[in-house]
Amino acid sequence: MLNDIYSNAKSNMQKTLDSLRRDFGTLRSGKVSTMILDNIKIDYYGTPTPINQVGSVIAKDATTIVITPWEKNLIKDIEKAILEANIGVNPNIDSDSVKLFFPPMTKEQRQAIAKDAKAMGEKAKIAIRNIRQDSNNSIKKIEKDKNITEDESRVALDEIQKYTDEFVKKIDEMVKNKEEEILKV
Q: Looking at CB atoms within 10 Å, which of 41, 68, 127, 133 has the fewest?
């Protein structure tokens, strides 16, 4: 019973960490990453489809991303989706691809993005604390139902708190590393 609660808590906390890692991928740092396009979808035969599933997306160098759709008629749709996503760059179209040229970031842009990273970290910490709360409530319910003793309950609550502290520490490290990466010129 308690082992299920432990494994669920740990699993959900790890999912939160993985989600934060994906979110960080959408933030721009010193060099561009193709992950900045992960949340942009185009209408592909009536289905919202990520750009990386309708063509090849390559970071050509530190400031350029090239999107080559497998079907040439999608170029206009890709251009429109990128403009609507407002990622801070205008797409350039040539005969068979869309090129995105990212200008170097200003100090203010870097600070704003670092602030966004901190906010994402705080949201992840809140999610971790909510998982702790749910786990603690489950433990208290089991104790109230007389399935475990008060001492076992206390030990279980301490164990959940250890998981929480461990994952919050990991989030703090991730945020610190991401801020350093963003602020590095």
A: 133
Instruction: Note whether 121 and 10 are within 8 A (CB).
Output: no
Strand partners, 58: 66
Give the pLDDT confidence of 43-69 residue by residue, as tens digits: 888 899 999 899 999 988 888 999 999
> 2-26+106-183: which CATH topology?
Topoisomerase I; Chain A, domain 4 (1.10.132)
Helix (H, G, I), strand (E, B) or coil at 178: helix
What is the token pair recorded at 50?
């990520």
Q: Which of the pair, 156 or 95, is modelled with greater confidence?
A: 156
The matching CATH number, chosen from 1.10.3300.10, 2.40.30.20, 3.30.1360.40, 3.20.20.300, for 34-101 is: 3.30.1360.40
Domain boundaries, the chain: 2-26+106-183, 34-101
What is the number of other CB atoms lying within 10 angstroms of the CB of residue 120? 20
The beta-carbon contacts of 99-108 under 8 Å, at least 24 apart in sequence, are 99/64, 99/65, 99/66, 99/67, 100/32, 100/64, 100/65, 100/66, 100/67, 101/63, 101/64, 102/28, 102/32, 102/63, 102/64, 102/65, 103/63, 104/63, 105/28, 105/30
